[in-house]
Specification:
By secondary structure, the chain is of the alpha+beta class. 21% of the residues lie in helices and 38% in strands. It has a single domain, classed as Roll (Hypothetical upf0131 protein ytfp), CATH 3.10.490. The strands form two sheets. A two-stranded antiparallel sheet has the order 1-2. It has a two-stranded antiparallel ribbon with strand order 3-4. Strand 3 and strand 4 form a beta hairpin. The radius of gyration is 15 Å and the shape is globular.
């Protein structure tokens, strides 16, 4: 996200902290996909971003008004560091995950580090 902001001449996002959201995380290969509304938890980072970064993030996630895609943009409240933040999240529909591996523990960074180490 920081690289995308710099590439487009937009103010860099400010890291706020880590939060969890109700959902399952799946391995799409080079990126994760989150299905919301299930009893498991997904871990992610919370950033304060300038409004100018939102359309850039939409482009990265291929979210276009009036077009169906893999991701959708939604707003959700998350708790982080004792405060509640209204955050943009980009979940996928449950029908998109098929037989993809579910990421136990809901932490993409930890999972990918272990996955990529085991491949080598």
């Amino acid at each position: 996200m920081t690289v995308a902001a710099a590439r487009h001449g937009v103010e860099a996002p400010a890291y706020v902290g880590t939060a969890t959201l109700s959902g399952w995380l799946y391995d799409f290969g080079s990126y994760p996909g989150m299905v919301l509304g299930v009893p498991e938890r997904v871990t992610g980072d919370v950033y304060r971003i300038p409004a100018a970064l939102v359309p850039i993030l939409d482009e990265i996630e291929a979210v276009y008004p009036g077009e169906a895609g893999l991701f959708v943009r939604e707003m959700h409240d998350v708790s982080c560091g004792g405060a509640t933040y209204r955050c943009i999240v980009y979940p996928v529909d449950a029908s998109a995950v098929g037989e993809l591996p579910q990421i136990s523990g809901g932490d993409w960074v930890t999972y990918r580090r272990a996955r990529d180490t085991n491949v080598a």
